[in-house]
Amino acid sequence: MTVKERREREKLETREKILDAARELFLTEGYDGVSMRQVAERIDYSPTAIYVHFADKDELFRELVHADFARLAGVFQDAANLSDPVERIKRVGFAYIEFGRRYPNHYKLMFMTECPLTGLDEVDCELKGNPELDAYAFLKHSVQQAIDAGVFREELRDAELLSQTLWAAVHGVISLNIAKHSDAWVAWRPLEQRAQLTLDAILRGLLKEKS
Amino acid sequence: MTVKERREREKLETREKILDAARELFLTEGYDGVSMRQVAERIDYSPTAIYVHFADKDELFRELVHADFARLAGVFQDAANLSDPVERIKRVGFAYIEFGRRYPNHYKLMFMTECPLTGLDEVDCELKGNPELDAYAFLKHSVQQAIDAGVFREELRDAELLSQTLWAAVHGVISLNIAKHSDAWVAWRPLEQRAQLTLDAILRGLLKEKS
DNA sequence: AGCGTTAACTTAACATCGTTAACTTAGTGA
DNA sequence: TCACTAAGTTAACGATGTTAAGTTAACGCT
Predict the structure, then answer these.
(1) What's the N-to-C CA distance of chain A in angstroms?
(2) N or C: which terminus of chain A carries fewer CB neighbours within 10 A?
(3) Which phi-psi region, left, alpha or beta, contains residue A54 (left: φ > 0; alpha: ψ -120 to 50)?
(4) How far, rounded to the nearest angstrom, does the alpha carbon of residue B206 sit from its chain's CA centroid?
């Protein structure tokens, strides 16, 4: 049986080689900017060899996105230790924006394009709902804690709605930065400044006013 | 001279036919989902005929985007009459979101993709800086008025930064809706509700607290 | 030891894409 | 009448994602 194991390991290794090459290319060139032939050439395989390991270009890319989702979740680990839920929400927001700044192409694929994921793959089921892995669930969890702590305004009790609103706010900052930062007709303020003000303002607007 | 005029008009007419066919296709299929050949077939021309009127696919699409920018600006005309700058900002935000809901593919191209526009075409120069046409400038104008009226918190005096923050907030709502609304792992609240809360919260967080 | 099977991988090819070059062709102005 | 202009066509190029048919080497079984 050790033989079959080795073969399996070898296959996984070339699979990993494909993923590495694809990651490097996608990161700098974006989805449309890289072809299967380029990926193949980079690891000295024929273009069609990729199809042994991945059904199509989409699946190859999705695999990378999956890995990066985990990386995104990892960034939240730091925030997880904060006991103040509001502080935690803030930290999650900044981490999210920083993630988008560091991996714009991955961010683009994850959050700025419609992908016919149709959800509910077995892998997704593992991820979704687990606060340590699922960014949205983690945010929602913190929001719920904040609600329970009574820090949000009285009429705001829907954790789902609050989470979606907070998410949209930080997503707006980073996605607009990715898509339009090179447009010279806007005198862009530094990203940090915009992130700071957005999080500050949206939270100030959602929380009870300090008396 | 009437002859040359007629020829010119005829050319403009087929140009318009191309634009109409392209608009219809792009609107439903998105940028990558439509080919020059499809556009051509729809108006019974050969694919290359399009290149008589447009340099390439990009220019064809950009032309549509230009027209839709004007349409977007037109939506703001209603808001222009409001004397209260804060109310005007709110109205602009809702109009912006409504525009994205109505023309998601155009919105995607306008605000969710990097386009190497590099700005400063002659047409762009007409648009930029004119509050009636340029959405961002219009927003900034209203923000400046609001600053002058002393409704924002004392430390917030940068109209550019405030505009960018407000823009990002509404952009976050509509762009996330476009990209991720079909993802079933989020129990999405109605778009109207999210838009309402976002604008309400961000403004509440930026304005002076009512005493 | 020999042989059929499996499966990773290659070669060749297909349909489609955006785009260019070379042509047709109809109408214009002199 | 004739050269010219310019809208439009046909044919083709290189590149794309992907499939079908082969190759080949290692494995498991008798």
Answers:
(1) 71
(2) C
(3) beta
(4) 24
Helices (H) and strands (E) counted in chain A, each on its own, are: 10, 0
Q: Is B206 on the interface with A (CB under 8 A)?
A: yes
d(CA B121, CA B128): 10
State pLDDT tens for residues B170-200: 999 999 999 999 888 899 999 999 999 999 9
Report whether B169 contacts A166 (CB < 8 A). Answer: no
A119–B183 CB contact, under 8 Å: yes
Cβ of A47 less than 7 A from strand C: yes
A33-B101-B82-A203 Cα dihedral, nearest 10 degrees: -80
Return the sign of the alpha-carbon dihedral for residues A99, A105, A110, A112.
positive
Rounded-to-integer distance, Cα B31 and Cα A155, Å: 42
Per the CB < 8 Å rule, is A165 touching B197? yes
Q: Distance (Å, rounded) from C-alpha B106 to C-alpha B89?
A: 22
A123-127 long-range contacts, CB within 8 A, separation 24+: A123/A66, A124/B185, A127/A69
User: Which of chain A's residues have a Cβ under 8 Å away from the Cβ of B175?
Assistant: 112, 171-172, 175-176
A18 neighbors A43 (Cβ within 8 angstroms): yes
**Strand C closer than 7 A to residue B31 Cβ:** no
Instruction: Write the residue in A171, A188, A201 that is nearest to B206 by C-beta.
Output: A201
Residue A204 CA to chain centroid, in angstroms?
Answer: 25
Say yes or no: A118 contacts chain B, CB-CB below 8 A: yes
Cut 0.85: pTM above it: yes
Predicted confidence at residue A50, as pLDDT, reads: 97
Q: Which of B144, B139, B130, B131 is nearest to B88 (CA)?
A: B139
C-alpha Rg value of chain A to the nearest Å: 20
Q: What are the two backbone dihedrals, phi and then psi, of residue B161, each rounded to the nearest 5 degrees?
A: -60, -45
Statement: residue B97 has pLDDT above 50: yes
